[in-house]
Amino acid sequence: MFRSIARTFLALTLVVAPAAAQDIDAIFAKYNAAADPQNKATTLPGIRTTAVFEIAAAGMRASLTSHQQRPNLVLTVVTIQGLGEMRQGHDGKTTWSSDPMSGPKILTGAEAATIADGADFAMLRRDRANYAAVEGAGEGSFDGETCQRVKLTYKSGRVTTECFSTTTGLIIETAGKQATAQGEIDTSTRLYDYKSVGGVMMPHRIVASMMGMQQVITISEATVGVQDPTLFDLPPAIKALRGNP
In terms of Cα–Cα distance, which of 151, 146, 191 is closest to 165? Predict the structure, then answer.
């Protein structure tokens, strides 16, 4: 559960007629115009985010802090009172996690890909060049808002489907599979309350649904600036597990 919390911070399939392939470039263009109208995503040096993480059904509430640095560095820290602190990061080469239940661990496969892909600042915009493949996946409707779905296959092999609002152009839902110790599980994530962060529109309320349970992240502050580079250094325990680079 600890690792799923951080992965959620970084993620209702409807089966309908597929969208025309030639529409995808228009969908991406509309998204980029809405999310990054001044092309600020190409110059953002780093982002610090603070948030509250909640699982109401489990009575769980935690604080979450994330640091991201261009081009693809990330550190996420989740603190749950009474349970301890979970850390998860990517230093550009190694993806890792550490928590009181599992201890230090180097992540691989789909678990690592989710974090590494999310750390890449290039993913703040939608561009065919970022993916191994893209294809139309039909339409969706959430809370009365229609959207166009696009299936994205990342170069890491990870696959997600994003639904772009036909009104605003912004992403209102993503769906995919999440790697867990029990195997892959289906996830659906709704994105709300977009606000500008350094000129780039980012959701400030994220509701993830998996295995019949909802996880809610509410961002209280997101600021742009260069992050302390030592934050992304591998912890000694992870270095020991990795051995020689």
Answer: 146
Q: Say what the pTM is.
A: 0.85
Q: What is the CATH number of domain 2-11+15-224?
A: 2.50.20.10
Contacts of 216 (CB under 8 A, 6+ apart): 53, 54, 55, 56, 205, 206, 207, 208
Query: Tokens 């325990």 sit at which residue?
Result: 237
Interval 70-97: pLDDT, tens: 999 999 999 998 888 999 999 999 999 9
Q: Which pLDDT tens digit goes with each residue over 148-175? A: 999 999 999 999 999 999 999 999 999 9
Tell me how far apart the alpha carbons of residues 64 and 221 are, in angstroms, rounded to a whole number. 11
Domain boundaries, the chain: 2-11+15-224
Cis amide bond preceding 45, omega within 30? no
